[in-house]
Protein backbone atom coordinates (compact mmCIF):
# COMPACT_ATOMS: atom_id res chain seq x y z
CA UNK A 1 0.00 0.00 0.00
CA UNK A 2 2.79 2.43 0.89
CA UNK A 3 4.35 2.47 -2.63
CA UNK A 4 0.91 3.12 -4.15
CA UNK A 5 0.17 5.95 -1.76
CA UNK A 6 3.55 7.50 -2.55
CA UNK A 7 2.89 7.14 -6.26
CA UNK A 8 -0.41 8.99 -5.79
CA UNK A 9 1.32 11.53 -3.52
CA UNK A 10 -0.92 10.48 -0.64
CA UNK A 11 1.75 9.13 1.70
CA UNK A 12 0.56 11.55 4.39
CA UNK A 13 -2.43 9.26 4.89
CA UNK A 14 -0.06 6.81 6.58
CA UNK A 15 0.29 9.23 9.51
CA UNK A 16 -3.33 8.76 10.55
CA UNK A 17 -4.23 5.45 8.89
CA UNK A 18 -3.76 3.23 11.94
CA UNK A 19 -5.60 5.60 14.32
CA UNK A 20 -8.47 6.08 11.86
CA UNK A 21 -8.69 2.31 11.30
CA UNK A 22 -9.08 1.71 15.04
CA UNK A 23 -11.66 4.50 15.21
CA UNK A 24 -13.61 2.97 12.33
CA UNK A 25 -13.65 -0.43 14.05
CA UNK A 26 -14.65 0.99 17.45
CA UNK A 27 -17.39 3.16 15.99
CA UNK A 28 -18.45 0.57 13.39
CA UNK A 29 -18.12 3.10 10.61
CA UNK A 30 -19.03 2.35 7.04
CA UNK A 31 -16.18 2.20 4.55
CA UNK A 32 -17.26 5.50 2.98
CA UNK A 33 -17.15 7.18 6.43
CA UNK A 34 -13.70 5.74 7.10
CA UNK A 35 -12.50 6.96 3.70
CA UNK A 36 -13.97 10.41 4.37
CA UNK A 37 -11.97 10.69 7.61
CA UNK A 38 -8.74 9.83 5.77
CA UNK A 39 -9.47 12.34 3.03
CA UNK A 40 -10.21 15.10 5.55
CA UNK A 41 -6.92 14.30 7.32
CA UNK A 42 -5.03 14.56 4.04
CA UNK A 43 -6.67 17.89 3.15
CA UNK A 44 -5.85 19.28 6.60
CA UNK A 45 -2.25 18.06 6.30
CA UNK A 46 -1.82 19.72 2.91
CA UNK A 47 -3.40 22.97 4.13
CA UNK A 48 -1.02 23.01 7.09
CA UNK A 49 1.93 22.37 4.79
CA UNK A 50 0.88 25.24 2.52
CA UNK A 51 0.47 27.54 5.53
CA UNK A 52 3.94 26.66 6.82
CA UNK A 53 5.38 27.46 3.38
CA UNK A 54 3.56 30.81 3.25
CA UNK A 55 4.87 31.66 6.70
CA UNK A 56 8.46 30.90 5.68
CA UNK A 57 8.15 32.97 2.53
CA UNK A 58 6.56 35.85 4.44
CA UNK A 59 9.87 36.55 6.20
CA UNK A 60 8.21 37.53 9.48
CA UNK A 61 10.63 38.53 12.21
CA UNK A 62 8.75 36.54 14.81
CA UNK A 63 5.36 35.10 15.65
CA UNK A 64 3.47 38.34 16.25
CA UNK A 65 -0.31 37.94 16.35
CA UNK A 66 -3.28 40.04 17.44
CA UNK A 67 -3.70 37.76 20.47
CA UNK A 68 -0.34 39.02 21.73
CA UNK A 69 -0.97 42.69 20.95
CA UNK A 70 -1.39 44.86 24.06
CA UNK A 71 -4.38 47.05 23.24
CA UNK A 72 -4.47 48.34 26.83
CA UNK A 73 -1.36 50.43 26.20
CA UNK A 74 -3.18 52.27 23.42
CA UNK A 75 -6.60 53.31 24.76
CA UNK A 76 -7.18 55.58 21.77
CA UNK A 77 -6.84 52.75 19.26
CA UNK A 78 -10.08 51.51 17.70
CA UNK A 79 -10.00 47.78 18.43
CA UNK A 80 -13.01 47.07 16.24
CA UNK A 81 -11.30 48.69 13.26
CA UNK A 82 -8.14 46.61 13.80
CA UNK A 83 -10.09 43.36 14.08
CA UNK A 84 -12.02 44.31 10.94
CA UNK A 85 -8.69 44.69 9.12
CA UNK A 86 -7.75 41.20 10.36
CA UNK A 87 -10.61 39.82 8.24
CA UNK A 88 -8.38 40.87 5.31
CA UNK A 89 -11.22 42.57 3.49
CA UNK A 90 -8.73 45.30 2.57
CA UNK A 91 -6.78 42.78 0.50
CA UNK A 92 -9.83 42.06 -1.63
CA UNK A 93 -10.38 45.82 -1.87
CA UNK A 94 -6.76 46.15 -3.11
CA UNK A 95 -5.99 49.16 -0.94
CA UNK A 96 -3.26 50.11 1.53
CA UNK A 97 -3.15 50.13 5.32
CA UNK A 98 -0.98 52.97 6.62
CA UNK A 99 0.24 52.71 10.22
CA UNK A 100 1.98 55.64 11.91
CA UNK A 101 3.22 56.28 15.43
CA UNK A 102 6.28 56.88 17.60
CA UNK A 103 8.97 54.27 18.11
CA UNK A 104 8.02 51.31 20.24
CA UNK A 105 4.24 51.66 20.03
CA UNK A 106 3.73 48.33 18.24
CA UNK A 107 3.57 49.27 14.55
CA UNK A 108 5.67 46.33 13.36
CA UNK A 109 3.79 43.97 15.67
CA UNK A 110 0.43 45.10 14.32
CA UNK A 111 1.60 44.92 10.70
CA UNK A 112 2.94 41.39 11.17
CA UNK A 113 -0.22 40.35 13.01
CA UNK A 114 -2.30 41.42 10.00
CA UNK A 115 0.16 39.57 7.81
CA UNK A 116 -0.25 36.42 9.89
CA UNK A 117 -4.03 36.71 9.56
CA UNK A 118 -3.66 37.06 5.79
CA UNK A 119 -1.36 34.03 5.50
CA UNK A 120 -3.83 31.90 7.45
CA UNK A 121 -6.54 32.91 5.00
CA UNK A 122 -4.47 31.73 2.04
CA UNK A 123 -2.83 34.96 0.89
CA UNK A 124 0.85 35.19 -0.02
CA UNK A 125 2.59 37.75 2.21
CA UNK A 126 6.02 39.37 2.31
CA UNK A 127 7.29 41.38 5.28
CA UNK A 128 10.31 43.57 4.54
CA UNK A 129 11.79 46.82 5.82
CA UNK A 130 12.25 49.77 3.50
CA UNK A 131 16.03 49.38 3.79
CA UNK A 132 15.87 45.66 2.91
CA UNK A 133 13.50 46.37 0.05
CA UNK A 134 15.74 48.93 -1.60
CA UNK A 135 18.84 46.78 -1.02
CA UNK A 136 17.14 43.81 -2.71
CA UNK A 137 16.28 45.94 -5.75
CA UNK A 138 19.85 47.25 -5.97
CA UNK A 139 21.18 43.69 -5.79
CA UNK A 140 18.72 42.57 -8.47
CA UNK A 141 19.85 45.45 -10.68
CA UNK A 142 23.46 44.38 -10.30
CA UNK A 143 22.65 40.77 -11.18
CA UNK A 144 20.43 41.63 -14.12
CA UNK A 145 17.26 40.30 -12.44
CA UNK A 146 15.65 43.63 -11.61
CA UNK A 147 12.51 43.16 -13.74
CA UNK A 148 11.87 39.69 -12.31
CA UNK A 149 12.30 40.97 -8.74
CA UNK A 150 10.03 43.95 -9.39
CA UNK A 151 7.35 41.70 -10.86
CA UNK A 152 7.44 39.42 -7.82
CA UNK A 153 7.17 42.37 -5.44
CA UNK A 154 4.38 43.83 -7.55
CA UNK A 155 2.25 40.68 -7.54
CA UNK A 156 2.54 39.34 -3.97
CA UNK A 157 -0.95 39.55 -2.45
CA UNK A 158 0.15 41.51 0.63
CA UNK A 159 3.41 43.45 0.80
CA UNK A 160 4.30 44.83 4.23
CA UNK A 161 6.93 47.58 4.17
CA UNK A 162 8.21 48.33 7.66
CA UNK A 163 9.99 51.53 8.77
CA UNK A 164 9.00 53.64 5.78
CA UNK A 165 10.80 56.99 5.85
CA UNK A 166 13.32 55.91 8.46
CA UNK A 167 15.95 56.69 5.82
CA UNK A 168 15.29 59.15 2.99
CA UNK A 169 14.79 57.71 -0.48
CA UNK A 170 17.42 59.13 -2.81
CA UNK A 171 17.80 58.58 -6.56
CA UNK A 172 17.31 56.01 -7.96
CA UNK A 173 15.59 54.54 -4.88
CA UNK A 174 12.73 57.05 -5.02
CA UNK A 175 11.98 56.08 -8.63
CA UNK A 176 12.17 52.35 -7.81
CA UNK A 177 9.83 52.79 -4.87
CA UNK A 178 7.39 54.79 -7.01
CA UNK A 179 7.45 52.16 -9.76
CA UNK A 180 6.68 49.42 -7.24
CA UNK A 181 3.77 51.29 -5.67
CA UNK A 182 2.45 52.25 -9.11
CA UNK A 183 2.51 48.60 -10.19
CA UNK A 184 0.65 47.53 -7.05
CA UNK A 185 -1.88 50.38 -7.18
CA UNK A 186 -5.46 49.03 -7.41
CA UNK A 187 -4.09 45.52 -8.06
CA UNK A 188 -2.80 44.33 -4.68
CA UNK A 189 -2.74 45.40 -1.02
CA UNK A 190 0.13 47.05 0.82
CA UNK A 191 0.83 47.82 4.49
CA UNK A 192 3.30 50.56 5.43
CA UNK A 193 4.51 51.45 8.92
CA UNK A 194 6.34 54.66 9.74
CA UNK A 195 7.61 56.69 12.68
CA UNK A 196 6.64 59.80 10.72
CA UNK A 197 3.26 61.47 11.07
CA UNK A 198 1.19 61.13 7.90
CA UNK A 199 1.75 64.81 7.09
CA UNK A 200 5.52 64.18 7.13
CA UNK A 201 5.63 61.21 4.75
CA UNK A 202 6.62 63.46 1.87
CA UNK A 203 9.94 64.06 3.63
CA UNK A 204 10.92 60.47 2.81
CA UNK A 205 11.44 61.60 -0.79
CA UNK A 206 14.39 63.88 -0.14
CA UNK A 207 15.31 64.77 -3.72
CA UNK A 208 12.14 64.56 -5.81
CA UNK A 209 8.98 65.92 -4.26
CA UNK A 210 7.02 65.29 -7.47
CA UNK A 211 7.72 61.56 -7.37
CA UNK A 212 6.90 61.61 -3.66
CA UNK A 213 3.55 63.28 -4.25
CA UNK A 214 2.63 60.82 -7.01
CA UNK A 215 3.63 57.82 -4.88
CA UNK A 216 1.80 58.96 -1.76
CA UNK A 217 -1.29 59.88 -3.77
CA UNK A 218 -1.57 56.25 -4.87
CA UNK A 219 -0.93 54.91 -1.38
CA UNK A 220 -3.49 57.18 0.26
CA UNK A 221 -6.27 56.50 -2.22
CA UNK A 222 -8.87 54.47 -0.33
CA UNK A 223 -6.34 53.58 2.37
CA UNK A 224 -7.10 52.66 5.96
CA UNK A 225 -5.08 54.78 8.39
CA UNK A 226 -4.11 53.76 11.91
CA UNK A 227 -2.29 55.97 14.41
CA UNK A 228 -0.65 54.33 17.42
CA UNK A 229 -0.28 57.02 20.05
CA UNK A 230 1.24 55.91 23.33
CA UNK A 231 4.42 55.30 25.28
CA UNK A 232 7.06 52.97 23.95
CA UNK A 233 6.95 49.45 25.37
CA UNK A 234 10.72 49.59 25.13
CA UNK A 235 10.87 52.37 27.72
CA UNK A 236 13.75 52.11 30.16
CA UNK A 237 12.97 51.34 33.81
CA UNK A 238 12.67 54.30 36.22
CA UNK A 239 15.94 55.99 37.15
CA UNK A 240 15.41 55.11 40.79
CA UNK A 241 15.46 51.43 39.94
CA UNK A 242 18.49 51.82 37.72
CA UNK A 243 20.46 53.62 40.42
CA UNK A 244 20.01 50.97 43.08
CA UNK A 245 23.43 49.90 44.42
CA UNK A 246 24.41 46.32 43.69
CA UNK A 247 23.79 43.83 46.44
CA UNK A 248 26.79 43.30 48.73
CA UNK A 249 28.66 40.09 48.09
CA UNK A 250 28.67 37.68 51.05
CA UNK A 251 32.02 37.64 52.83
CA UNK A 252 33.91 34.42 53.13
CA UNK A 253 34.36 33.06 56.62
CA UNK A 254 37.92 33.54 57.95
CA UNK A 255 39.95 30.36 58.04
CA UNK A 256 41.90 29.37 61.09
CA UNK A 257 45.58 29.21 60.27
TrEMBL record:
One of its GO terms (biological process) is DNA replication. Residues 235-257 are annotated as: Disordered. InterPro entries: DNAC/IstB-like, IstB, IstB_ATP-bd, P-loop_NTPase. Residues 5-234 form the IstB-like ATP-binding domain. Keywords: ATP-binding, Nucleotide-binding. Transmembrane segments: none annotated. Pfam families: IstB_IS21. One of its GO terms (molecular function) is ATP binding. Residues 237-257 have a biased composition (Low complexity). The keyword ATP-binding applies. PANTHER family: ATP-BINDING PROTEIN RV3427C IN INSERTION SEQUENCE-RELATED (PTHR30050:SF4), CHROMOSOMAL REPLICATION INITIATOR PROTEIN DNAA (PTHR30050). NCBIfam families: IS21_help_AAA. This is ATP-binding protein. It comes from Massilia cavernae.
Amino acid sequence: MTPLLKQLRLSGILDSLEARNREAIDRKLAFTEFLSLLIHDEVARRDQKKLALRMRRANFRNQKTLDGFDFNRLPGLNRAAVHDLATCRFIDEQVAVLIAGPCGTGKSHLAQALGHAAARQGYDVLFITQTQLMASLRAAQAMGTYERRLQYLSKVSLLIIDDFGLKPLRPPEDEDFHDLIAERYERTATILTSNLHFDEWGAAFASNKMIGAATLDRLRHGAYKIVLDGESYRSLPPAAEKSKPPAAKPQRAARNE
